[in-house]
Design brief:
YggU-like_sf, DUF167, alpha+beta, globular, Conserved Hypothetical Protein Mth637, Chain: A
């Protein structure tokens, strides 16, 4: 019984070692995504770290995790989401219909899609940095 148990542990550790040491899996996990990027359709994806319930709307920072935005609306009944879209459209000088909440309607981590025909990623980064004051 003991021998079977030891052999099964050795077999499991070898299979795990092969999985994690393969170059294809390591390269996928090391891939770092930008907070502002293009999706497969060419639309601009902006990763948002929303902070609802603030005194005023403002962009706090840009990091690898996303663009930190304080929202002056409570996180109930979608009020903060609507305010987020309204504020981003104002900062980016776009129509509200060009800015759409794609994912994260009930989370602080959100993905906002911006119409590909309305603006470029470089302009989005520049306008967000200008709003921060960098």
């Amino acid at each position: 019984m003991r021998r079977i148990y030891q052999n099964s542990l050795e077999a499991m550790s070898k299979s795990k070692r092969n999985k994690f040491n393969s170059p294809s899996l390591a390269s996928k996990s090391e891939k770092i995504e930008e907070p502002i990027r293009l999706d497969k359709d060419g639309n601009i994806c902006v990763r948002i770290l929303a902070k609802p319930g603030a005194k005023q709307n403002c962009i706090t920072d840009i990091s690898i995790d996303g663009v930190g935005i304080q929202i002056a609306a409570p996180p109930s009944e979608g009020e903060a989401n609507a305010e987020l879209v309204k504020y981003l459209s104002k900062v980016l000088r776009l129509r509200k219909s060009d800015v759409v909440l794609d994912k994260g309607s009930r989370s602080r981590n959100k993905i906002v899609l911006i119409n590909k025909d309305s603006i470029t990623t470089d302009v989005v980064k520049e306008l967000i940095q200008r709003e921060i004051g960098l």
